[in-house]
Design a protein that fits this description.
Blueprint lengths: L4 E2 L2 H10 L4 H4 L4 E7 L4 H9 L8 E6 L6 H11 L7 E6 L2 E7 L3 H10 L1
Parallel strand pairs: 1-3, 2-3
Antiparallel strand pairs: 2-4, 4-5
């Protein structure tokens, strides 16, 4: 069983400089979910309750970027480059390739996507 991992500074730096998460994230498992969010978000609080149930089906990485020193730069990148102004923001990878992006998902929808991505 995998654990939910927090994105490292190096992984976030790679995202900001290369425009995509590094292979250490995208290829961590056949199915990978990356969640970029802020700690105050109620929908994020909901997702945190069910994510541990899916660590056997996907590698899950998170970043509560409002708590990071580089908050403004990360937020600007997410909003302006990745074109997403909502939290939580989810990126789904299959075999290292981005296959889907979304925002908050209820448990059932998340399960459907992780099961088929």
């Amino acid at each position: 069983m995998n654990t939910i991992q927090t994105l490292t500074d190096d992984q976030l730096d790679a995202l900001l400089s290369e425009g995509e998460f590094p292979e250490s994230v995208r290829l961590a498992a056949p199915t990978v979910v990356v969640i970029m969010t802020q700690d105050w978000c109620g929908q994020w609080a909901d997702m945190k309750t069910y994510l541990p149930d899916f660590t056997d089906r996907a590698a899950i990485f998170t970043a509560e970027y409002n708590l990071l020193p580089d908050f403004e730069r990360i937020m600007a990148f997410k909003e302006d480059v990745l074109k997403n102004r909502h939290v939580p923001y989810l990126r789904f990878y299959r075999d290292g390739k981005l296959v889907r992006q979304s925002n908050w998902l209820p448990r059932g929808s998340f399960a459907d996507i992780v099961g088929r991505t």
